[in-house]
Design a protein that fits this description.
Largest sheet: 5 strands, parallel
Helix content: 10-25%
Bound molecules: flavin-adenine dinucleotide
CATH class of the largest domain: Alpha Beta
Number of domains: 2
Number of helices: 6
Strand order of the largest sheet: 6-13-7-8-9
Number of strands: 15
Length: 249
């Protein structure tokens, strides 16, 4: 599918440059982008679609089992965990939302939280506490994701941070819900962002705080972060940029 997307863009004479942008200068026009390789690009209008990265625990076993029972997106992967006992790591609104969503699929959902109370809003907490399928494992962190043969998750090794007790918990899947980091660091101090680092755009459109710079997809969306919403706002950015350039001619 990506090959087809690329072929279509090439038909309209899009030039592709592969490389990581390490810094930008949006103070001057045209804007300047510096690529990791040392080369420089300039542009009259810029669309930012750098996405957001899920935060992980940083365990080797977690990395090895990603896509094999470890996930960071309940909406995307919840369906694959039908009738299994599922673990959710986290204690904020996202974790509780994921846990509630996963009760539609799993036989039980264990929320594993490193503290003894949730950060989630009271409303979300009440919904979770009233849900029979959700259990809470307090004061605990995941030390290891367990797998018998490396192809599926069988459980987690938990460490109680208060009692120092270590115990294994059987699970058929593990969702890490400790937040996302938008990939917007290179725009720090140049564009308006919210407290979490998501780029702010106009209410009805994708214009950022600098004229001619547009942002779309997960980099500007702390709420939905879905492929279809990213594609939709990507289309909006393309139209916004095209109109902005046409207006300047
Ligand atoms: C495991 C997983 C499963 C998912 N499943 C679904 C699903 O089933 N349905 C659904 O709707 N959504 C799903 N999503 C969410 C969906 O993938 C995202 O919402 C969507 O990809 C966001 O698109 P984007 O273009 O904003 O960002 P991305 O797809 O993240 O693309 C950002 C791109 O920018 C590049 N980039 C970042 N910084 C720089 C830089 N400095 N210089 C150059 N390039 C840079 C990155 O390398 C990347 O290629 C899933 C996500 C994950 C992680």
């Amino acid at each position: 599918m990506m090959d087809q997307f690329r072929a279509q863009a090439e038909r309209f004479e899009t030039e592709f440059v592969n490389g990581h942008v390490v810094s930008v200068d949006l103070d001057q026009r045209p804007f300047v982008l510096n690529i990791e390789s040392g080369s420089e690009l300039s542009c009259d209008s810029l669309i930012i679609a750098t996405g957001a990265s899920a935060r992980w625990l940083g365990l080797d076993s977690e990395t090895q089992l990603r896509g094999r029972g470890v996930s960071a997106c309940a909406t995307c992967d919840g369906f694959f965990f039908r009738d299994r006992v599922i673990g959710v790591v986290g204690g904020g609104d996202t974790a509780i939302e994921e846990a509630l969503f996963l009760t539609k699929f799993g036989s039980a959902v264990n929320v594993i939280h490193r503290r003894d109370e949730l950060r989630a809003s009271r409303f979300m907490q009440e919904r979770a506490f009233n849900n029979d399928k959700i259990n809470f494992i307090w004061d605990s962190v995941v030390d290891e994701v367990l797998s018998e043969d490396g192809t599926a998750v069988n459980g987690v090794r938990l460490h109680n941070v208060k009692s120092d007790e270590v115990k294994d918990l059987e699970l058929g899947g593990l969702f890490i819900a400790i937040g996302h980091t938008p990939n917007t660091g290179i725009f720090n101090g140049q564009l308006d962002m919210n407290d979490e680092g998501y780029i702010k755009t106009q209410l009805r459109g994708t214009q950022t705080s600098i004229e001619g710079v547009f942002a779309c997809g997960d980099a500007a969306d702390s709420i939905y972060r879905q492929a279809v919403t990213a594609a939709g706002t990507g289309c909006m950015s393309a139209i916004d940029a095209e109109r902005w350039l046409a207006f300047r001619e």
